[in-house]
Design brief:
With 472 residues, the protein is mostly beta strands. The chain is built from 4 helices and 33 strands. The structure holds fe (ii) ion. The site of fe (ii) ion has 7 residues, from strand 20.
């Protein structure tokens, strides 16, 4: 089957903004403004990029992971795109099912679906880790070349998997990760030192199998998500991807982080009105309270569009709509409180990563285009202390990626300097297929970019991004 034949012709996530691209690299060409001299480091973004036309039903989440890298320094930029050679990349992995397919569990595997590491990218131990949304084997990638170094198991010590949205702690350099199993009532928390040694691993019992997406991290706690999207009984019994929204509260589990030689502590659970959360903005501590800021999903108000044929339900689920909220959890009294920050819709939040786990005022979100596909027509800088925002619009027909915050060279992470730097994103024009790096002054956010840099290749829309300072 070709890209435009049969089922593939009906799948909007194989065409236009989402059409796969090829590996490549080359210099960026400045087309407006100037690349700031005090911008040194790299923006990385992950996303799905099928290597060949799918032969059956294909979910956007099933494409092989491809990393896009934008390196900045001395007023210049270069770009590269490379596949993540994950455990299931290429011919060997092609036999493993995607999420529309019946999955058969293999005794020697810890995942049942194709592990493409296509979802998230984080920095740990001086390298990139590409991570997968339903928890897979992390893939260590060279941050200069985007070459895959290894499928990472921390010297053979990793018992199972590492989920996308596991976090690195800027204070200790540790990777604090979570893992979950599709059909078992358990989540796991793990800690890997800055030197890449697995130091702690703990199982946490749940009332049933769960499908979390993210976690929170503060200086002293990890926050797990027990959310009401679960497998149906039929899904669990037959080990197939059949999920529904259950009538049960949302719970966040606050677990003390390993400290002074002791492992993870006892999890304290807080119940809230039912909701689903894909992405955490940040989490921190205020007195006795652990505070988590995140984007809470709301109904997208759309109905499955029959024009997409069998892909109508997938398209509907991918049209994410969410609002920023705070959840406050008092560790002394056990009380929880939910606060809505704003009713405007936004998602894919990013912060100054040097402040992960510390109280943050600023976050940078994408604005979903008002259509039934997942595409980002603007960025928004939120003031989490007031719920107000400033918006940076792209031109009509141009769509962005999850942004990353790049601190200006030499600026620390104290509260006053939190937004002293640039917001970097990758845009693609639907009309021309041209992609650009856009560098926005974080303190003059609504202004035109300080630089636009045309890339030598087209970057399809994708998932998560990060910033790696040059010195790290
Ligand atoms: Fe995500």
């Amino acid at each position: 089957m070709q890209w435009n034949e049969g089922l593939n012709a009906k799948n909007p996530y194989l065409h236009g903004l989402y059409a796969p691209t090829v590996e490549g690299s080359g210099p960026g060409r400045v087309i407006s403004g100037e690349i700031p001299r005090d911008l040194s480091g790299a923006y990385f973004r992950n996303g799905p990029n099928p290597t060949e036309p799918p032969g059956g039903m294909h979910h956007w989440f099933d494409g092989e992971g491809m990393l896009h890298g934008l390196w900045f320094g001395d007023g210049a930029a270069r770009y590269a795109a490379r596949y993540v050679r994950s455990r299931d990349f290429g011919a060997e992995g092609a036999a493993r099912p995607g999420i529309f397919s019946q999955a058969e569990e293999a005794a020697d595997r810890t995942t049942v679906y194709r592990d493409t590491a296509n979802t998230d990218v984080i920095v740990h131990n001086g390298r990139l880790l590409a991570l997968w949304y339903i928890s897979g084997r992390p893939v260590a990638v060279d941050p200069e070349t985007l070459e895959t170094i290894a499928v990472e198991d921390f010297g053979g010590a990793l018992p199972k998997n590492v989920s996308a949205h596991s976090k690195t702690c800027p204070k200790t350099g540790e990777l604090i990760f979570f893992d979950y199993a599709l059909y078992e009532p358990t989540m796991w928390l793990g800690a890997v030192s800055a030197e890449n040694e697995l130091t702690h691993f703990k199982a946490i019992d749940l009332p049933g199998p769960r499908l979390p997406h993210d976690m929170g991290l503060t200086e002293n706690y990890a926050i797990l998500h027990d959310l009401p999207v679960v497998f149906t009984e039929q899904g669990i019994a037959n080990r197939v991807w059949r999920i529904h929204v259950a009538e049960q509260p949302t719970r966040f589990g606050v677990t003390p982080r390993p400290k002074d030689g002791a492992g993870f502590g006892e999890t304290k659970w807080f119940e809230f009105p039912t909701c689903y959360v894909y992405h955490v903005i940040n989490a921190w501590e205020e007195g006795d309270e652990v505070v988590m800021a995140a984007c809470k999903m709301v109904d997208n108000g759309l109905a499955p569009n029959p024009d997409y044929g069998p892909y109508a339900p997938m398209v509907d689920v991918l049209a994410l709509r969410a609002q920023p909220f705070l959840w406050r959890m008092n560790m002394k009294t056990g009380e929880g409180r939910e606060e809505q920050l704003d009713d405007a819709l936004s998602e894919f939040p990013a912060i100054n990563l040097g402040r992960t786990g510390s109280k943050t005022r600023w976050s940078y979100h994408v604005v979903m285009d008002d259509c039934d596909l997942q595409r980002f027509s603007a960025l928004r800088k939120y003031d989490l202390s007031t719920g107000s925002y400033v918006q940076h619009d792209f031109e009509p027909g141009v769509f962005g990626s999850e942004p990353a915050f790049a601190p200006r060279d030499g600026v620390g992470v104290d509260a006053d300097a939190e937004d002293e730097g640039y917001v970097v994103t990758l845009t693609t024009s639907l009309e021309t297929g041209r992609s650009e790096a856009r560098i926005i002054d974080a303190r003059d956010f609504a202004a035109p970019p300080v630089a636009r840099v045309e890339l030598p290749g087209r970057a399809p829309a994708g998932f998560h991004a990060t910033w790696m300072p040059a010195a790290s």
